[in-house]
Amino acid sequence: MTEFLLAFAETIVLTALLAFHPVNIGFRERNWSFDLSISMFLFALIGMLTGFLVVHHGYLIGFVIFGIGGLFRFRMETSSAIDTSQMVIAALVGLAVGLDLPVMATVGMAATWIVLAVFGKSQTLALEVKFDEAAAPPDAILRLQEDLAAQGFRPLSVSKAKFKPTAHYVLSSRKRAAQVELVRALSELQARPESGVADWHIDRG
Q: Are 125 and 203 in contact (CB under 8 A)?
Protein backbone atom coordinates (compact mmCIF):
# COMPACT_ATOMS: atom_id res chain seq x y z
CA MET A 1 0.00 0.00 0.00
CA THR A 2 2.85 2.40 0.83
CA GLU A 3 4.44 1.76 -2.56
CA PHE A 4 1.11 2.41 -4.29
CA LEU A 5 0.55 5.67 -2.40
CA LEU A 6 4.05 6.89 -3.29
CA ALA A 7 3.44 6.07 -6.97
CA PHE A 8 0.09 7.83 -6.80
CA ALA A 9 1.64 10.95 -5.26
CA GLU A 10 4.44 11.04 -7.84
CA THR A 11 1.93 10.71 -10.66
CA ILE A 12 -0.18 13.57 -9.30
CA VAL A 13 2.83 15.86 -8.90
CA LEU A 14 4.26 15.17 -12.37
CA THR A 15 0.87 15.46 -14.06
CA ALA A 16 0.20 18.75 -12.26
CA LEU A 17 3.29 20.20 -13.97
CA LEU A 18 1.59 19.63 -17.31
CA ALA A 19 -2.05 20.17 -16.38
CA PHE A 20 -1.28 23.51 -14.72
CA HIS A 21 1.39 24.63 -17.16
CA PRO A 22 1.11 28.44 -17.66
CA VAL A 23 0.24 27.92 -21.34
CA ASN A 24 -2.64 25.59 -20.46
CA ILE A 25 -3.86 27.71 -17.56
CA GLY A 26 -3.97 30.83 -19.71
CA PHE A 27 -6.10 29.12 -22.33
CA ARG A 28 -8.44 27.37 -19.87
CA GLU A 29 -9.12 30.56 -17.91
CA ARG A 30 -10.10 32.39 -21.07
CA ASN A 31 -12.49 29.60 -22.02
CA TRP A 32 -13.81 28.74 -18.53
CA SER A 33 -13.00 25.06 -18.96
CA PHE A 34 -10.60 22.80 -17.07
CA ASP A 35 -11.89 19.56 -18.60
CA LEU A 36 -8.56 18.81 -20.30
CA SER A 37 -6.57 19.31 -17.09
CA ILE A 38 -8.92 17.00 -15.16
CA SER A 39 -8.74 14.41 -17.93
CA MET A 40 -4.94 14.46 -17.79
CA PHE A 41 -5.04 13.37 -14.15
CA LEU A 42 -7.47 10.56 -14.98
CA PHE A 43 -5.39 9.29 -17.89
CA ALA A 44 -2.20 9.53 -15.85
CA LEU A 45 -3.91 7.48 -13.13
CA ILE A 46 -4.96 4.87 -15.70
CA GLY A 47 -1.35 4.63 -16.89
CA MET A 48 -0.01 4.39 -13.33
CA LEU A 49 -2.51 1.69 -12.36
CA THR A 50 -1.63 -0.29 -15.50
CA GLY A 51 2.09 -0.18 -14.79
CA PHE A 52 1.60 -0.97 -11.11
CA LEU A 53 -0.56 -4.00 -11.91
CA VAL A 54 1.94 -5.24 -14.50
CA VAL A 55 4.79 -5.07 -11.99
CA HIS A 56 2.88 -6.74 -9.15
CA HIS A 57 0.32 -9.01 -10.85
CA GLY A 58 1.59 -9.81 -14.35
CA TYR A 59 1.26 -8.27 -17.80
CA LEU A 60 -2.10 -9.84 -18.76
CA ILE A 61 -4.16 -7.81 -16.30
CA GLY A 62 -2.21 -4.72 -17.34
CA PHE A 63 -3.22 -5.19 -20.98
CA VAL A 64 -6.85 -5.55 -19.95
CA ILE A 65 -6.83 -2.32 -17.91
CA PHE A 66 -4.94 -0.37 -20.57
CA GLY A 67 -7.35 -1.66 -23.23
CA ILE A 68 -10.30 -0.36 -21.22
CA GLY A 69 -8.53 2.99 -20.89
CA GLY A 70 -8.05 3.03 -24.67
CA LEU A 71 -11.78 2.60 -25.20
CA PHE A 72 -12.46 5.64 -23.04
CA ARG A 73 -9.91 7.58 -25.11
CA PHE A 74 -11.92 6.95 -28.28
CA ARG A 75 -15.02 8.30 -26.52
CA MET A 76 -13.29 11.58 -25.79
CA GLU A 77 -12.75 14.44 -28.22
CA THR A 78 -9.96 16.98 -27.78
CA SER A 79 -9.93 20.27 -29.59
CA SER A 80 -6.43 20.06 -31.04
CA ALA A 81 -3.48 17.80 -31.78
CA ILE A 82 -1.59 19.51 -28.94
CA ASP A 83 -4.32 18.56 -26.46
CA THR A 84 -4.28 14.96 -27.71
CA SER A 85 -0.49 14.81 -27.41
CA GLN A 86 -0.65 16.04 -23.82
CA MET A 87 -3.22 13.37 -22.98
CA VAL A 88 -0.94 10.65 -24.38
CA ILE A 89 2.10 12.03 -22.54
CA ALA A 90 0.18 12.17 -19.25
CA ALA A 91 -0.83 8.52 -19.69
CA LEU A 92 2.75 7.48 -20.55
CA VAL A 93 4.18 9.36 -17.56
CA GLY A 94 1.69 7.60 -15.29
CA LEU A 95 2.62 4.29 -16.91
CA ALA A 96 6.33 4.93 -16.31
CA VAL A 97 5.66 5.69 -12.64
CA GLY A 98 3.60 2.53 -12.29
CA LEU A 99 6.38 0.49 -13.90
CA ASP A 100 8.79 1.89 -11.26
CA LEU A 101 10.67 4.10 -13.74
CA PRO A 102 10.57 7.42 -11.86
CA VAL A 103 13.61 8.90 -13.60
CA MET A 104 12.15 8.29 -17.05
CA ALA A 105 8.81 9.74 -15.95
CA THR A 106 10.46 12.84 -14.50
CA VAL A 107 12.72 13.44 -17.51
CA GLY A 108 9.80 12.90 -19.91
CA MET A 109 7.59 15.38 -18.07
CA ALA A 110 10.41 17.94 -17.80
CA ALA A 111 11.06 17.72 -21.54
CA THR A 112 7.35 18.11 -22.29
CA TRP A 113 7.06 21.11 -19.97
CA ILE A 114 9.98 22.85 -21.70
CA VAL A 115 8.68 22.13 -25.21
CA LEU A 116 5.24 23.46 -24.29
CA ALA A 117 6.77 26.57 -22.73
CA VAL A 118 8.85 27.30 -25.84
CA PHE A 119 6.41 26.39 -28.60
CA GLY A 120 3.03 26.51 -26.86
CA LYS A 121 2.71 30.28 -26.72
CA SER A 122 1.40 30.47 -30.28
CA GLN A 123 -2.25 29.57 -30.64
CA THR A 124 -3.66 28.13 -33.84
CA LEU A 125 -7.19 29.05 -34.83
CA ALA A 126 -9.30 27.69 -37.65
CA LEU A 127 -11.61 30.26 -39.20
CA GLU A 128 -14.40 29.68 -41.69
CA VAL A 129 -15.81 32.80 -43.36
CA LYS A 130 -18.80 33.17 -45.62
CA PHE A 131 -18.65 36.19 -47.92
CA ASP A 132 -21.38 38.18 -49.57
CA GLU A 133 -21.40 37.16 -53.23
CA ALA A 134 -21.96 40.79 -54.23
CA ALA A 135 -18.63 41.73 -52.64
CA ALA A 136 -16.45 39.77 -55.14
CA PRO A 137 -15.35 36.92 -52.82
CA PRO A 138 -11.81 36.48 -54.29
CA ASP A 139 -10.97 40.12 -53.53
CA ALA A 140 -12.71 39.96 -50.14
CA ILE A 141 -10.72 36.84 -49.19
CA LEU A 142 -7.44 38.64 -49.86
CA ARG A 143 -8.55 41.80 -48.05
CA LEU A 144 -9.57 39.82 -44.98
CA GLN A 145 -6.25 37.97 -44.96
CA GLU A 146 -4.36 41.28 -45.05
CA ASP A 147 -6.58 42.83 -42.36
CA LEU A 148 -6.10 39.87 -40.02
CA ALA A 149 -2.33 39.83 -40.60
CA ALA A 150 -2.19 43.52 -39.73
CA GLN A 151 -3.91 42.74 -36.41
CA GLY A 152 -1.44 40.01 -35.41
CA PHE A 153 -3.09 36.90 -36.88
CA ARG A 154 -0.56 35.26 -39.20
CA PRO A 155 -2.23 33.20 -41.96
CA LEU A 156 -0.78 29.69 -42.15
CA SER A 157 -3.09 28.61 -44.95
CA VAL A 158 -6.05 29.94 -46.90
CA SER A 159 -8.41 27.88 -49.04
CA LYS A 160 -11.70 28.54 -50.82
CA ALA A 161 -14.59 26.12 -51.19
CA LYS A 162 -15.45 25.37 -54.82
CA PHE A 163 -18.51 27.13 -56.17
CA LYS A 164 -19.21 28.68 -52.75
CA PRO A 165 -18.39 32.14 -51.35
CA THR A 166 -16.70 30.46 -48.37
CA ALA A 167 -13.04 30.54 -47.34
CA HIS A 168 -11.13 28.61 -44.70
CA TYR A 169 -8.24 30.23 -42.85
CA VAL A 170 -5.75 28.66 -40.46
CA LEU A 171 -4.27 31.44 -38.31
CA SER A 172 -1.45 31.61 -35.79
CA SER A 173 -1.25 34.24 -33.06
CA ARG A 174 0.82 34.95 -29.96
CA LYS A 175 -1.85 37.18 -28.46
CA ARG A 176 -2.72 36.18 -24.88
CA ALA A 177 -6.44 36.16 -25.65
CA ALA A 178 -6.17 35.22 -29.32
CA GLN A 179 -9.68 33.84 -29.77
CA VAL A 180 -11.31 36.77 -27.98
CA GLU A 181 -9.28 39.23 -30.05
CA LEU A 182 -10.19 37.42 -33.26
CA VAL A 183 -13.89 37.58 -32.40
CA ARG A 184 -13.54 41.30 -31.77
CA ALA A 185 -11.65 41.85 -35.04
CA LEU A 186 -14.18 39.89 -37.09
CA SER A 187 -17.12 41.66 -35.49
CA GLU A 188 -15.62 45.02 -36.38
CA LEU A 189 -14.83 43.91 -39.93
CA GLN A 190 -18.29 42.45 -40.46
CA ALA A 191 -19.79 45.80 -39.51
CA ARG A 192 -18.06 47.35 -42.50
CA PRO A 193 -20.07 46.71 -45.70
CA GLU A 194 -16.93 46.88 -47.85
CA SER A 195 -15.39 43.87 -46.04
CA GLY A 196 -17.86 41.49 -47.66
CA VAL A 197 -17.94 39.28 -44.54
CA ALA A 198 -21.42 37.81 -44.16
CA ASP A 199 -20.82 35.15 -41.47
CA TRP A 200 -17.95 33.37 -39.74
CA HIS A 201 -17.10 30.51 -37.38
CA ILE A 202 -13.97 29.97 -35.24
CA ASP A 203 -12.47 26.71 -34.00
CA ARG A 204 -9.29 26.20 -32.02
CA GLY A 205 -6.82 24.53 -34.35
A: yes
